[in-house]
Amino acid sequence: MKLGKYKHYKKGMYEVIGVARYSEDAEKEFVVYKMLYESDFPYGQMWVRDKELFVDEVEVDGQMVPRYKYVGD
After folding, report:
1. Whole-Å CA distances, 70 to 2, 5, 25, 65
2. What is the pTM of this model?
C-alpha cells in the first residue's frame, strides 16, 4: 500500500498514513487515512477502512474505476 494522497472516485482527497492490523485477527488489514477537505466532518478527520474495500474497484458509468486512486505524495 503506497502512502500518500488518494482521490475518492466521487468525493475529495485523502491521505493514507499507514496500514493497521486487527488485534483479533492479524490477517485482517485496514487502511488508516485522513480527510483533506471539509465536509460534515472536520479537515484532517481520521478514518479506517478494510484494505480490500479501499483497493476495490467500483462501477461508474459502465466502467470499473478504483474506489481510491493514488495521485502522489
Report:
1. 8, 6, 27, 12
2. 0.89
